[in-house]
Structure formats: C-alpha cells, structure tokens
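Task: sequence in, structure out. Protein: Glycoside hydrolase.
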Amino acid sequence: MHKWIRLDQAFIMGIILLSLASVMSGCSSIERQPEVILPELKEQQVQHKPVSILQQKLVVKGSAERKYSFVIKDHAGESKPHRQAVNHPHNGVHKPVRGIYVSGWIAGDRKRLDRLIQLVDETDLNAMVIDVKNDYGNLTYRSSLPEVKAIHADRNPLISDIRSLLSELRAKHIYTIGRVVVFKDPLYAQSIPNGALQKKTGGIWKDRKGKPWVDPYLAAVQNYNIRIAEEAARLGFDEIQFDYVRFPDHGARVNEEVRFSNTKGVSKAEIIGSFLRQARARVHAAGALVSADVFGLVTSSEDDMGIGQSWRIVSSAVDFISPMTYPSHYSNGMYGIDQPDLHPKEIIRQAMVDANKRNTYLHKSGRQPAEIRPWLQSFTATWIHPHQHYGMNQIRMQIQAAMEQGVNQFLLWSSNCKYDYHS
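Result:
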C-alpha cells in the first residue's frame, strides 16, 4: 500500500528551511464544498437512505462503554444522510477514531477476523479500515455495478457477505472505513487500455514493478472509482477512504515518459483535488464520510511532491486526511533526525506540528480543513539498517507524540494485519 519517496538530501533540507508562510501562500482558488456539521464516532442500527427528519440518534463506543446521542444537521438546519459520529471541531463530545487495517483476505477469514474483533473489544480501538478495492484493482465483495462486472473486478470476492459483516461490526459499535485504492489499478488498466497511463512512445506505461496505472485525468476513471465508493457507502460503510489517490511517484521521470490525458493544462494537484471534491459530495449523498491517504512528507512538503498531493488541496476536500507517517519511510536527516526508524516519537511530533500549521492556515484563510488522522507504523521495517522491532512501546510513542500535538486519532498499519497492541 504505502510506498515512499527517498528524497535526496538537498531537497530534504530545502523543505526544512522553507518558511511556512511561503509554503502556504499559493492556496488553490478552487472552492470547497459546503460544510456539514457532524457528530463524533459511531451509530447503531443504521438505515442507508436519505434522512427525512431533522434528528438522527447515534451510539458510540465510549471508554466505559457509555452511549452518547447526537444530532446531525448542516448549516441550514437540514438533516444529512451522514450517520457517523466523528471527531469534529463543532462537537461537544470528543471520541476519536482509533483503528487498524484489515485486508480483504483477513476480513474474509472468520478465524483471523474474530481475533481482530476481539482485539478491538478488549482495547480502546474502535474502528477497522477494510479493503473495498485493493491494490490489484479487485473488489473484495460481489458488486452490482455493471462497470465492475464488465472487467470482472469482483470475480473472486474475498468477503462472501459484506452486508452481514458490516452489520456484525455495527452491532459491536465498530466504526467501518472502506479502503478504495484509486489510481493504482492494474486490472482496470489492462482491461480498458485507453484508461491507462500511456507512454509518449506508444503503449501502456508501467511503473518500476511492471504495474500499469490508470490516468487520473480521465472522467471515466474517476467515475468508476466514485461509483464503487458510493456502492460501498450504501452497503453500510461509515466512511470511504481513498488510497493511492495520486499519480505514480518519481514524478519527474513519469512526466518525461507519460502522455497524460490533460487537454486543459490542469495541474496534478488540481485534478486530485477536483476528484476528491466530486467524490466527497457523492459519497456524502450515499451516506458516508470521506478520507484520503497521503504520503507522510506531504505534511511538510512545499509542493505536491510530483504526485499531485498538496496538503492544502487535499485537506480542504475531504473530512479526514491520513498522512502515512511511518518513521521507517523517512530519509536519514529528515527533520534533522538520523536513522528515523529509531526515533518514532520525534518523527511523528514534527510531522504533526507541520500538519497542524497547514490546517491552521486553512482555517485562517476561511477554509474548513480535514481532521488529521495519521497512519502509524505497526510493522518492523527489516529492510532498513539499522532498524528496530515495532511493538507496543514504539506504537505508544507514536500515539503519544501525536496526542501531544492535539491529534487524538490514529490508524495502525500492518500489511499482514498483526498488531502488538493493548490499552
């Protein structure tokens, strides 16, 4: 899922020295969708259809299993089809999301899934990020969408009964986030070649691992992913999380090799922002919130890193923004820290400091930024030398560093879904 760009030292130090004012002076002129006042974390007995009444009762998992009720209204006092209780600056009660990644394989394996449910039950965790469309372009459940059927993207569903699974998790007050991998979609690219990134010399472009990507500039590609997100929301997911919502990394090389379907001269960052705003409006209408994953260094970078991820654009287009702040993925010397994998607290602290500064600027410029909910490292990066084992102590250091900066939400990433975590 989460690759990283190893920046050269000069560029890294350049980022560190740039002033925040300079970073943020060029805010996008694209307007944000109307804001929705939302409650805190989780409800029970959800009806996935538009709400016709002004009040909707929600239930959340509290630290002492207490139940809280909330009312969802927009600024005009009208009810919205949002069901989740989320961490929102307008809320009177603060119950942050604390989640773990659950792959489609694990979600479809009863025994292993039960172990993760037990982990959530026995700790302060309250959320699961579950694959909807994975890194290969495969859906994890049987879809009813004709465009999915046309390319057999749901031919081998890992989750036999998605509605039943979501109902079970809802009954346990577990907040469900559906992960949709967007522009890294080898299946779509191979099935519909015109939708893939094209080489300037002809043929489908592939990344260094031999995988094709789809072209983010194409409306058909965008609509395909939004349609899947809408379906997942209507099936019962509380939130849709867009991952790989970016262009391939090594942007300069990609620009030299790829002929984008960009007839209007729109920048990478602008097209990513446009996609997220459109997706947010439609997913909201389908009854779920929207989040987006970004590279960890996006919290501190002066530009879109060549991949179309600008903090100010993404944060102002979604409800939650999740920088992938894995210490092992930072280059030596970043933030003046040697061997970042050995210093998780320092890395997370600085990343959250920078993220908060970006969001503060958005507030001051009249925009409502997304809630910050970082991905934290819950795996051991054995390919890094030196490295350390990431167990509960390392996880706790990351959580503490984020909390010290006022960031009380987090998601834990482990590709094999094994977590050394306890409250």
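The first strand starts at residue 36 and ends at 37.
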